[in-house]
């Protein structure tokens, strides 16, 4: 007879990791539906949004800046930015002072696609998280606490 597997949590609904995984999959599925018509993956959207956000305060956004802003692996960011460049959503130019770095900018097409994606994703988020009502700010605060604690 096989040995009984022991779990620390009494049921899946007691496991925060399991619940987070389930919630993440449902949320990603919802975002895929709104991003597919714009020819964007969720990762591409996240990097475009990071670029858009950083561009509000700087004309010299680099790949490293985007990776740091999005909490993403630098090599993955490099590959995804190449794809976004092939789609015509961003441009990459030589950095004036750092020969290893590239300045990343949204193209006119990229700005249009990002704005459409932001509206779609933000509306999807509002719909998805609506059941939390007044608890949303506490939920966000808890997520920020976990991000800050685990990203170092």
UniProtKB/TrEMBL annotation:
Keywords: DNA-binding, Transcription, Transcription regulation. Residues 13-152 form the HTH marR-type domain. The keyword rRNA-binding does not apply. One of its GO terms (biological process) is response to stress. PROSITE patterns: HTH_MARR_2. GO terms for molecular function: DNA binding; DNA-binding transcription factor activity. It comes from the Bacteria. This is MarR family transcriptional regulator. It comes from Pedobacter frigidisoli.
């Amino acid at each position: 007879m096989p040995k009984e597997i022991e779990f620390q949590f009494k049921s899946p609904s007691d496991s925060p990791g399991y619940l987070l995984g389930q919630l993440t999959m449902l949320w990603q599925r919802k975002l895929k539906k709104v991003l597919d018509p714009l020819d964007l993956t969720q990762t591409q959207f996240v990097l475009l949004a990071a670029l858009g956000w950083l561009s509000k305060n700087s004309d010299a956004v680099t790949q490293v800046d985007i990776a740091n802003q999005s909490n993403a692996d630098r090599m993955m960011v490099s590959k995804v930015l190449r794809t976004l460049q092939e789609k015509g959503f961003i441009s990459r130019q030589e950095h004036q002072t750092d020969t290893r770095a590239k300045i990343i900018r949204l193209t006119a097409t990229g700005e249009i696609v990002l704005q459409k994606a932001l509206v779609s994703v933000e509306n999807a988020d509002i719909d998805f998280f609506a059941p939390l009502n007044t608890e949303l700010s506490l939920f966000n605060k808890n997520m920020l606490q976990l991000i800050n604690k685990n990203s170092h």
